[in-house]
Amino acid sequence: MGNIQRSKYFESQIVGGDTPDSDDHRYIVSLRLFAQHFCGGFIVSSNKVVTAAQCTFGRIPSSITVVVGSNYLTSGGLVYTPMRIAIHDRYIPVASDYDVSVLEIPSISFNRHVFPIRLGSNFIGAGVAAIVAGWGSTGYPSAALSDSLQVLEVETWNNPNCETALGVTGLLISERNICAGGLSDEGVCGGDTGGPLVVAGEAIGIVSWGIPCGRGYPDVYARVSFYRDWILNQFEDS
Fold first, then answer.
1. Rounded Cα–Cα distance for residues 154 and 127 (Å)
2. Element (H, E) at 58
3. Are residues 44 and 102 in the same domain?
4. Assigned domain for 46 exists
5. 203 falls within a domain
6. Domain coverage including residue 145
7. Is residue 42 a contact partner of residue 49, using CB atoms and an 8 Å limit?
8. CB atoms < 10 A from the CB of 139, how many?
């Protein structure tokens, strides 16, 4: 338990990833504070971006900027300021449970660089090939972010095996979570928090927490199918 980190900024990186083709991940966004990347997220409609609750907890909308349409942190993209933030009302920071948040964005114009991703509705079991992406550093414990988006292929776990591998209790790994990854020298961490785990063109997970970084442990995601209705119901008054 002592090595498990679930805070907002636990070592930010994708370890062992590759640089994707330019338009492969048009849904991914960079969340920034004072022009510095701190979390990922993904577009699900023209006015909604999904991320982890730990990325927005305690923040006001005007403190965050959302950059869409670029695979690079230092160039390109369009910048939006959220109008409202919704955090799941059962979010538990100490355990990163119900770790989901939606940002309401002024209408996003879609093009070949910017496009939403579908929200997965089916329960995904073990042994499914998935993709996760982010701008973290490519080695641990380096704190330097990668300027170019990094993509990593991972495989999903069943929850009991994930819980055993992490050595934690069922209070932390539940039907609200999905685990993936677990190879040495590959994995995600805090700067990738909020980004999507993707299977067959659908977001099935939201990067939440893990044991840093690329040390052979599975990473834990919020399971999108559990939160799908909650996500879709946010900001329907706008």
1. 9
2. none
3. yes
4. yes
5. yes
6. 118-225
7. yes
8. 14
Same domain? 111 vs 155: no
Find out whether 12 and 30 touch, Cβ atoms under 8 Å.
no
Same domain, 112 and 122: no
pTM metric for this prediction? 0.90
Identify whether residues 76 and 44 lie together within a single domain: yes
Is the domain of 78 the same as that of 127?
no
Q: Is 115 exposed, middle or buried (0-12, 13-18, 19+ CB in 10 A)?
A: middle
Q: How many separate domains does the chain show? A: 2
CA distance 213 to 222: 18
Taking only the tens of pLDDT, the chain with its 238 residues reads 223 333 333 333 454 444 555 578 999 999 999 999 999 999 999 999 999 999 999 999 999 999 999 999 999 999 999 999 999 999 988 888 999 999 999 999 999 999 999 999 999 999 999 999 999 766 666 667 888 999 999 999 999 999 999 987 666 789 999 999 998 888 887 689 999 999 999 999 999 998 888 889 999 999 999 999 999 999 986 5
